[in-house]
């Protein structure tokens, strides 16, 4: 089986304005049935970063609270 990857960031991001489809990990968990329904079988959670610069490779709690 090939992986069809749905990439997400958890938390609120501010670029042109606030963007937060998944403010917490529980929001992502709640969306898993819909993500599967649209054809994805793998979820990739992006690292905590600011403007594509990794801030912390170790501390995931800040991102997923």
What Rg do the Cα atoms give?
Answer: 13 Å
Number of strands: 6
Helical fraction equals 25-40%
How many domains comprise the coordinates? 1
In DSSP terms, counting alpha (H) and pi (I) runs of 4 or more, how many helices? Answer: 2
Q: Please indicate the percent range of residues in DSSP E strands (runs of 2 or more).
A: 15-25%
The whole-number mean of residue pLDDT values reads 79
Give me the side-by-side strand order of the main sheet: 1-4
Order of secondary-structure elements: EEEHEEEH
Secondary-structure class: alpha+beta
Head-to-tail CA distance between termini: 32 Å
| Biggest sheet overview | 2 strands, parallel
Shape: globular
What does this molecule look like?
This protein has helices spanning 25-37, 61-64; strands spanning 5-8, 13-14, 18-19, 42-45, 49-50, 53-54. The radius of gyration is 13 Å and the shape is globular. The chain is an alpha+beta fold. It has one domain. The relative contact order is 0.24.
């Amino acid at each position: 089986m090939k992986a069809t990857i749905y990439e997400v960031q958890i938390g609120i991001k501010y670029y042109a304005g606030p963007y937060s489809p998944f403010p917490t990990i529980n929001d992502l968990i709640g969306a898993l049935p819909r993500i599967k329904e649209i054809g994805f079988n793998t979820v990739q959670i992006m690292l905590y970063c600011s403007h594509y610069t990794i801030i912390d490779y170790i501390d995931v709690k800040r991102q997923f609270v």
